Please model this.
Amino acid sequence: MNSGSTAETRTGQLQSPFASGPVIVFAVAAVAFLAQMVTASRYGYFRDELYYLDCARHLAWGYVDQPPLIAFVAWLERHISGDSLYSVRFLPALAGALTVWFAGRLARVVGAGAFGQLLAALGVLIAPGYLLFFHLLTMNAFEPLLWTLAAFLVARIIQTGNQKLWLWFGVVSGIGILNKWSMLFFGCGIVAGLVLTPERRALAHKWIWIGFAIAMLIWLPNIVWNIQHHWPFLELMGNVRSSGRDVVRSPIPFLIDQAFFMHFFTAPLWIAGVWWYFFGREPAGDGTRGRYRALGWTYLFLLIFFIAAGGKSYYLWPVYPMLFAAGGVAIEQW
Model:
């Protein structure tokens, strides 16, 4: 039985199709998309958008400062609908709406009813950091969607035991790496979460390794390009670090940044989500505690890693939709 459906029935919510979780989440996703499109022309082109549009004139499997996907996206938009602000910002807005949708879907998978799914979707909708991400044609616009979709697949694997879903995880991860190499860190977080929980049994199945091979195969053209050009991206990052251009945030300011850019009103939601992943009880089934703890460890791994590595605050933003999803379950239960 679907745990999301069970949770909605147990909480005695209205059975009208217009009050169901998926319909409500779809409505919030539509609002997210329309809000971005209505304001698409309010500000002119961002400098990075102009750069990516120029990269689209010179398609390659890699660039000095980013993987190839963003240039292909810019090329696609220019050839389908031109390079107006509405065209350039259409796919980022769509990525934002899909992130809202999959945050709600993830909440449903881990046991949220309609109210919990609504909270997860609203968390993504009102976050200032996401309002910025989904407004501009940059790699950051697609990063939360790909991380959330990957987390959704992991949750489905844990829920159903269907190890073949690791193949789709590999596809999503490979595309995510072609968008931004930070997807590698998210993958490491997932591995850490598996190793630290009973879900490590997935490592004994062939499907997770085939999924890994798929991700590497998708990434391979970009690896070959970097080898041919002597890894210019790594050289660039080294030069940036040595120049002292980036501002390194200590742990407390880093955490304050997370609360600010995810909106202070949603801080209880994602903090509850972290707690629920570790200690929360499933609303349906046998009421197991911490069944999805692997996702909780993923967040802690990324948080500690980015703080220790001196990463920018926004490097962690793509992980919060999966916390909003769990927070929706926790708050709904309370």
Confidence is low (pLDDT under 50) at residues 1-14. Residues 17 and 42 are 36 Å apart (CA to CA).
